[in-house]
Structure formats: C-alpha cells, structure tokens
Amino acid sequence: xxxxxxxxxxxxxxxxxxxxxxxxxxxxxxxxxxxxxxxxxxxxxxxxxxxxxxxxxxxxxxxxxxxxxxxxxxxxxxxxxxxxxxxxxxxxxxxxxxxxxxxxxxxxxxxxxxxxxxxxxxxxxxxxxxxxxxxxxxxxxxxxxxxxxxxxxxxxxxxxxxxxxxxxxxxxxxxx
Length: 176
Fold this sequence. Notes:
Layout: H1 3-23, H2 33-42, E1 52-58, E2 61-68, H3 71-82, E3 89-92, E4 95-96, H4 101-115, E5 131-136, E6 139-146, H5 149-160, E7 167-174
Parallel strand pairs: 2-3, 2-4, 6-7
Antiparallel strand pairs: 1-2, 5-6
Helix pairs in contact: 4-5
C-alpha cells in the first residue's frame, strides 16, 4: 500500500470505528437534582467539621437546612445551589451559629477530643469528616454518621468531657 492509500484507508477506518467507540452503548446517566445539590454543597471550599448543611428538593425548589459556623458559608451555599440548572427557587433556612470566643474554644477542644482519640481518629480521614460538631452558646450537637453504636457513644462521651460544655446532643446516625 502506498502512503496515500494508507492514509485514505486509516481515515475510512477511523470513520467506521468512531461511532462504535464513542457513540454506542447506553447514554450517560443524567444526574438527579438531589445529586447536583449534594455535589455543590460538598464542593464549598469552607464547608467543614463545624458545619452541617442538609437540603430538601421539592420539584424545582430547594430548601437548605442546617447550621454553619461562619456567616459567609450560608451565602456561598445559597449562591452555589441557585445556579444549578433546574433550580428555580432556593429557600435558605440555614442558621448561622453565634460567633463567640467561648464557642470557638469549645469547637477546637471538641474536635481534638473526638478526632484526636485513637479509636475515632479514622473518621478524620478524607475531605469531609463524617462527625460534625455544632456549638451554640456552649451546647454541642454531634451530627453525621459513624460505623457503629460504640463509636456513636464514644464520640458523645468525648464531647461531653470537654470543659465548659453545658450539654451534648448526640444526633449521630449509625451506618452499617
């Protein structure tokens, strides 16, 4: 085969193979609105262990719920969600926790007490640790998910041992 014929043959072969290589098979699955909202929340740069954002989708309306440590995260969450294709309205019911040095000290001590404890340290891995520590006027709420009941109780005991904590509410879920 000459160079001209080889080039023509390769071009024809590419046209014959292209529909099978790129266009055949099932179409990519469209992400649901729930998945898109969850993705946008998880991509917020300052969303962390001291925040807990949840949401509810009703048709094309998204209701944001939960608590955040810093005021700008509330605004960032709303802005991220309202730009999602398919969302026509965002009802932002996120509560901004009080800004206080007393609560900040409790936050830092609670995160050390829970994530620094060897039996719970595995939960500190990853970009979004699964145990959220919410502090409001000295009252701590633990939210998120753990692997077993023992870890749930251990996180509660560790948070309850932080000096200055008035109460601890354990809302951790156990995921099998």
